[in-house]
Amino acid sequence: MQRVIPGNIIVRQRGTRFHPGNYVGIGRDHTLYALKEGCVKFEHHKLSGRKWVHVEPKDGHMLHPVYSSTTASESKTAT
């Protein structure tokens, strides 16, 4: 596991080969960067085949509901 601080670039890519997960932001050029301090975790979804990049927050930090994958998908469909 790689430690990151907010603003660190995790992946530079052309297109969305990796998708942003919890505490990961995406730039205009599809660069993924850390939003919180913690460890990087890569995940491969079996059904959809998508690759996700997450930042697991440092000890003592809780996952904010805005960044949880289920809450984010619901808010996008509501607007």
UniProtKB/TrEMBL annotation:
<dbReference type="GO" id="GO:0006412">
    <property type="term" value="P:translation"/>
</dbReference>
<dbReference type="Pfam" id="PF01016">
    <property type="entry name" value="Ribosomal_L27"/>
</dbReference>
<dbReference type="InterPro" id="IPR001684">
    <property type="entry name" value="Ribosomal_bL27"/>
</dbReference>
<dbReference type="GO" id="GO:0005840">
    <property type="term" value="C:ribosome"/>
</dbReference>
<dbReference type="GO" id="GO:0003735">
    <property type="term" value="F:structural constituent of ribosome"/>
</dbReference>
<protein>
    <submittedName>
        <fullName>Ribosomal protein L27</fullName>
    </submittedName>
</protein>
<dbReference type="InterPro" id="IPR018261">
    <property type="entry name" value="Ribosomal_bL27_CS"/>
</dbReference>
